Amino acid sequence: MKLNAERIEGTNAITRHSLEGVVINGQTYTRSVVVPWHGEVFSWAAGGFEGLSEDDFVHLLALKPELVVFGSGNRLRFAAPRLQRALIDARIGVETMDTAAACRTYNVLLGEGRCVVAALLFDAAASNTRSTATG
Question: What is the spatial distance between Cα 97 and Cα 69, in angstroms, rounded to a whole number?
């Protein structure tokens, strides 16, 4: 699906998403990624949903978001609360939804000027085995 969000200069808008990945600032990502409202987009949760660990969520603390939008893959799945404990203890909101909904929600919050991070999983069967970046 192509998204037409007005891009605020210096932010990371998701301009396209599909089962295979996302396009952010002209670059295609086909592996699970973290998309902060500003700064560098980076790989995340290499083990997929089943391999999620506390460390995957702890690393998001350094970004200092108001809210994390967790995209759980092609379908809605909730990570165990113990995995998100660091974010909860730091009073950072965590919203869980399927990855397509997470992309849309992230862009809405970004457009509102919120300090939001999207942590997006792509199901292994639907995504390629390597991440690509094209410009």
Answer: 8
